[in-house]
């Protein structure tokens, strides 16, 4: 589990490094900036959240905290569900706005 947590951190920093100044914790679409399609974003639409979920499972399990891992993962997935809907809507609207008519 420690290796999984370290790999999740590696993925998170790869995401941050790929997005550079575009990385933030808010849902912000900057008009005129293209969607990022390099680094981990070539294969995954939201790789940072893969890291968050892996970390939320792995870190408690480093100390065999099954209950914490379970409760946190369920609560986190509920929050991510809302967050992903908001982000996907914003990305879709940005893509539509960027498409010439």
Automatic annotation (TrEMBL):
It is found in: Membrane. The keyword Transmembrane applies. It comes from the Bacteria. InterPro entries: ICMT_MeTrfase. It is a multi-pass membrane protein. Its main location: membrane. Keywords: Membrane, Transmembrane, Transmembrane helix. Pfam families: ICMT. This is Isoprenylcysteine carboxyl methyltransferase.
